[in-house]
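This section describes the prediction task in plain terms. A model, or a person checking by hand, is given the sequence of a single protein chain and must write out its three-dimensional structure as a string of tokens. No templates, partner chains or ligands are provided. The sample shown here is typical of the held-out split.
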Amino acid sequence: MRSFFDILLAKFSLLYYNSIKKQYKKLLINAFKPNNNSNFGFSWSTLTQWLEKSPENLDLMMMIGPRWNCHAVIGLSDVFQVSNSISFYVQDIINSATFWTIVIYSQDFKTVKHIGSKDNLNQLEWKKVNLNPGNYFLGLRYYETDLNITFPAIKVDGKLLFTSYDASSEKKRYENYLNSLKKISKIKFLLMHLHAYIYIKHRNKFRDDWIRKHYLPVGNPETHFSYGLVKKGDMLNVEPMEQNRGITFISIYNRSSIPVFWAKIENTKSIRATCSGTYLIRHISTS
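The expected answer:
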């Protein structure tokens, strides 16, 4: 009987989440609208800058990225128009981070192409990616960053459109922002994301692919995930996945999908959960 009411509540939560997402669709499009003002040019933003740009952007983030990546320095670009190709200045990237990925999204938020540290671009000055004509924006993730962090200069159709962007202060700034989220208690976020907690709690009643679709972030091919339920007071024993072949991280989220703990896993680690929720392990593979 308890599981019946749990699943009923989860269905309500998922319906609420989808209705909120539908209501916010226009706001989401405006948050990533094309930059048509050439007087100001095109630029990168750090994720923290984007979140702090508008009070509504936190709500948007809780829709498009509720399983927060707490481990990377993240950059977002303005939307820009492409006729045939985009090129990235490689030295800006490899001098900034050991592991990295850049995802090219269409304006309707679909993944088009991506490049990453597995591509071994060290011998190149510029990395060119061919694209169909259209509007695109970029999502960048740097892991294991240097003290000096630079988002890369970009050429579009052979012309410099984005200059190199100094993001060295973002690592600390994002850490502070994530810590500030722990103080947030919004019933709206709980109602939006309670379904994830309940569906994982009763995952034996659902197909694995269905659970993954509703819980996991949209990852890149080199990102592998493991996830599960955690209750307050539980002790998690975590060890690196594929040791010596990448890096492993863990995040714990409360039932509102607010991150409450995150860490890099270098050796077997015991973690006591301070609240009930879910955990997500990310492994960024190098091979």
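For orientation: The chain is about 30% helix and 35% strand.
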